Amino acid sequence: MTPSATAANYRRKVRTLFASLSTVLLAACGGGDGEDTTGRRVSESATSRQATTGKVHGLRNHTNTCAIGSVVQLLMHDEPLRKQAQRSNPELHLDLLRDAYHGNSNAADELDAVYAANVLHPIQARYAKRAAPGSLIEAADLWSHADGLQLPLYFVADPPREIPLQRREHGERVFGFLAEGSGDGSGYVNFADLPERDQLRGLVYNAGGHYVAYVRVDGRWWLFNDSQAIAIDELRMHRLRANEGCGVAFVVYET
């Protein structure tokens, strides 16, 4: 198998993994039936104005799951997508998730072998002959002569943003704006700079490494911060500004 074919196969299985995971989480959350992920009824907190409606509840952070939890909150409040997930068979998606996990392990091994044969070994043979395996000089020589591989290698500041996205026609415009609209080149933007804010369904905000979701439910904005769901006003949304490592990561518009 060629390096490009192996990499493409690996990326396809990764997409299957995350698609199945999101669908399983959507089905498990119940699509807003008034219970949290443990089956307990959501109760009201007068001091924090936390969620009391059956449509809104938080998701627990199971160690670094804030990013995918924020995405799931957006998906849960997209009614057509939620209903489609509820009509599907969760067991089928669990099977796909399990198969993708094992398949990714095998694909990663294949990719490592191709990478070692076509990238690491040629550099090592030419520039690091006298270095012991694992030594610092080997690592330094390895990447200082990467141009000798004649491969299209280039610096990437944020790998996830370099991956091509398959998106619908309206998504092309939205994601294009986010990629070009940030003045500092970080890819993040201020809430106030988003176009057509009245058509926003929700967004994911990177708060310096911790991700939260802001979702409009029945015309009102809610902040989903892991297990907390708090009603907020429009003024607070306008305070969402972009700076180094923070800002609106991506948005969902009404269709």
UniProtKB/TrEMBL annotation:
Signal peptide: none
Classification lineage: unclassified sequences, metagenomes, ecological metagenomes
Region ranges (Disordered): 33-55
Organism (species): mine drainage metagenome
InterPro entries: Papain-like_cys_pep_sf (IPR038765)
Protein name: Ubiquitin carboxyl-terminal hydrolase
GO molecular function terms listed in the Swiss-Prot or TrEMBL record: hydrolase activity
Keywords: Hydrolase
Biased composition (Polar residues): 44-53
